[in-house]
Amino acid sequence: MNRKKKMNKVLNAKIKKANAKNQPSNKPRYISKAERAAAAERDAE
User: Fold this and answer.
1) Which intervals of the chain are annotated as region Disordered (predicted)?
2) CA distance to 5, 6, 31, 40, per residue, from 16 (Å)
3) In the chain, which residue ranges form alpha helices assigned H by DSSP?
4) Cα 34 to chain centroid, rounded
């Protein structure tokens, strides 16, 4: 029983991770500090 439970736990974790990757993310793309400064300079011109 323990072996079966352990295998199911591992497989379910893999399935959960795969499903999480397929979900769309609402986070905006990361922009580095240097890129933000360069963009601000371009907008100021």
Assistant:
1) 14-45
2) 16, 15, 29, 40
3) 2-22, 33-44
4) 23
In angstroms, the Cα distances linking 33 to 12, 25, 30, 44 are: 39, 22, 10, 17
Residue type (1 letter), 7 = M
- The first and second tokens of residue 40, run together, are 């601000």
Which two tokens mark 24? 């769309």
Residue range 23-33, pLDDT digits in tens: 988 889 999 99
Q: Would you state the structure tokens that stand for residue 6, as one six-digit string?
A: 């352990």
pTM of the model: 0.51
